[in-house]
Amino acid sequence: MAKTVARRRFARDRVLDAAQALFTERGVGGTSLQMIADRLGVNTSAVYYQFRSKADIVVTVFRPVFEDITRVVRIAAAIPSQEVRREATISGMIELAVRHRRTTALLHADPAVAELVEAVGEFREAFHSLQAILAGPEPDPASRTAVAVLVPGIFGAAADPAVCDIPDEELHRLLLDCSRRLIAA
Amino acid sequence: MAKTVARRRFARDRVLDAAQALFTERGVGGTSLQMIADRLGVNTSAVYYQFRSKADIVVTVFRPVFEDITRVVRIAAAIPSQEVRREATISGMIELAVRHRRTTALLHADPAVAELVEAVGEFREAFHSLQAILAGPEPDPASRTAVAVLVPGIFGAAADPAVCDIPDEELHRLLLDCSRRLIAA
């Protein structure tokens, strides 16, 4: 019985790995369930045995990222000082962007993912809370612009092949420096 | 005769408008030639009369952006001072990101577009020249990280609905301020 569960998890993980590779290559919108099955050398029925739909696969791939965003927001929301709250949020966002480098590349990088974020209630809330904390209450155009640069900048940079040789810890520190300069206004 | 040319241009522009709207909604990878035809209420043959392939449409949509990037790079390359050259490049990049807000949103936002940039020689050269000028010769990890934040940050921000109420000129100025802080290191 334990063996069956392990086998089933292995099969699920293989589908998720293949899906993620295809999302990176072709975008979420450009990937079909048939392509995922082809990549694994199986029939689509084998994929449907693990997941209800392509949307189910997409949500499963992105869930860990949004769970981490939710955690960052929850930790930050409990901090009374607005400045400290924002700093903690930025550092948390960078940490997860770097740790999930492969997945977060898609986060700011695909209209199909943006649509998914809006469609799934918990994802939408996590992302909007993140942006609200970063912008602060009643942000002026300069603050809104800085946040609009910061979020795709961090997620885009973490996924950029030009920095893939920089170790996670150093990249986290460098991105934090960038964020501080950007938000310092 | 002149009328026929005008009509043909009108038909081409309609295809390009429909394609761009679908690219924004579903990503380039998630848009088929059939969907473009459906959006226009015509047969695919009517679309094929104007364009050889979906790739032909994609290249046509992005050509103006890359022509502008090439122009920015050419102007900057003639400036002897490295610092002035970078400043001119950043301001030029922001100007075109803001002017082409709708199109540039896709530029850093779709694996299918990244693939296109690599596939089309002139596009690839324009983009790599832009990144090389921004990073400077033999950039250290901090400079590489700042440039990796800057490019998706600028293109992402220009396309962000959160700043769509800010007029072009003001947004250009605010993004230039962000870039100066980011690159100042």
From TrEMBL, chains A, B:
Question: Which PROSITE patterns does the entry link to?
Answer: HTH_TETR_2
Q: What is this protein called?
A: TetR/AcrR family transcriptional regulator
- Binding region for DNA: 32-51
Q: Which SUPFAM superfamilies match?
A: Homeodomain-like
| This protein's record includes keyword DNA-binding | yes
Identify the InterPro entries for this entry: Homeodomain-like_sf, HTH-type_TetR-like_transc_reg, HTH_TetR
What positions does the domain HTH tetR-type occupy? 9-69
Key word Transcription present in the record?
Answer: yes
Q: Which UniProt keywords apply?
A: DNA-binding, Transcription, Transcription regulation
- Pfam families in alphabetical order: TetR_N
